[in-house]
Amino acid sequence: MSDDPFVIAGVELASRLILGTGGAPSLAVVDEALVASRTAMCTVAMRRIDPRTSGSIIDVLDRRGVRVLPNTAGCRTAREAVQTALIAREALETDWVKLEVVADERTLLPDPLELVDAAQQLVADGFHVLPYTNDDPILARRLQQAGCIAVMPLGSPIGTGLGIANPHNIELIVSEATVPVILDAGIGTASDAAFAMELGCDGVLLASSVTRAQDPAAMAVAMAYAVEAGRLARRAGRIPKRFHAQASSPTEGMAVL
Amino acid sequence: MVITLNGAKCEISDGTTLDELLTSLAGSSRGSAAVVDGEVVPRATWGQFPILEGQVVELITAVQGG
User: Fold this and answer.
1) Which of A118, A97, A89 is nearest to B33 (CA)?
2) A1 pLDDT exceeds 80?
3) Region B25-45: what's the mean pLDDT?
4) Chain A residues in contact with B30 (beta carbon < 8 A)
5) Domain contains A110
6) How many structural domains is chain A composed of?
7) pLDDT > 80? residue A108
8) Rounded to whole angstroms, what are the CA distances from A125 to A121, A139, A162, B34?
9) Residues of A whose CB is below 8 A from B31
10) Closest residue by Cα to residue A17 from A232, A189, A193, A175
11) Residue B28 carries which DSSP code?
12) Which of A19, A89, A96, A98 is catalytic?
């Protein structure tokens, strides 16, 4: 039993790192990355069955004992997202859903109006909703009021690897959150993940930074350490930033040289 | 009879059930869902759900993504 459990809607997850599976060149690479990351939950997309594909992401997750979190990736409207969540619930027999409703392909930024609409509909239908949201504290508040079990603000747009563009907003979201805050999207490298945790996020969800790294499994290990290190640093309490130097050695007792 | 299956016209035998269609396409129905004429069909009814001429059927599963 951890002394710092990560709990979402009463479910304890063994890792604060949630892995996306998109962008990997093969299921074998996903498999290696998820083992290396020690993740406890992975997100998957819902698409038409293609009889030409062999192997199933669900088999990989089952074999590794990793919880599946279906998403509504690609949806542009609340109607599409709700329909996709219903499909996922039927296919995967889970009422947890990562809710994504993006406005356009160029930015892949969430459409706030459609997002809140979809969240309200899904919560009313008994879903446990984890919304991918803008780094907007007021929108995060609205999503919590709608009954979401977590909020997942972006660090920067999906796939950019630009890190956390507005740490002040992430801190604001964390400071008033009543549900877990999971930094989702924009992570480029391990220091970004550590920074998210230092800002007080409860977890990090990332995909491209691992699946598109030159060595995905090695980057997955780095991310696991980064999330743990960031969490430990947050709990340890960092020193305040100062404008001027402050000696760490005693100023008394200097020899006359 | 002809239906639209995942966006393409498709010839199937009369009386084919959703369960049979899913199994023939994917090998099993595990991890899959079915939408017929825009309605998500509950898993429990697939075995008795006859597909009708001209229906639009979407068979969906989990893939890498997100």
Assistant:
1) A89
2) no
3) 88
4) 56, 58
5) yes
6) 1
7) yes
8) 6, 21, 36, 19
9) 56, 58, 91-92
10) A193
11) S
12) A98
Chain A environment of B62 (Cβ under 8 Å): 44-46, 56-58, 68, 70, 88, 91-92
Separation CA A20–CA A221 (nearest Å):
15
Q: Give pLDDT tens digits for A137-174.
A: 999 999 999 999 999 999 999 999 999 999 999 999 99
Q: Is residue A1 part of a domain?
A: no
Name the 3-class secondary structure at B45.
Answer: helix
Q: B2-61 adopts what CATH topology?
A: Ubiquitin-like (UB roll) (3.10.20)
Instruction: Note whether residue A249 is domain-resident.
Output: no
Judge whether A98 counts as a catalytic residue. Answer: yes
Q: What are phi and psi of A175, to 5 degrees?
A: -65, -25
Instruction: Report how far residue A128's alpha carbon sits from residue A125's, in angstroms, rounded to the nearest whole number.
Output: 9
Q: pLDDT tens across A187-232, in order?
A: 999 999 999 999 999 999 999 999 999 999 999 999 999 999 999 9
Quick one: which of A165, A155, A148 has its CA closest to A203?
A: A155
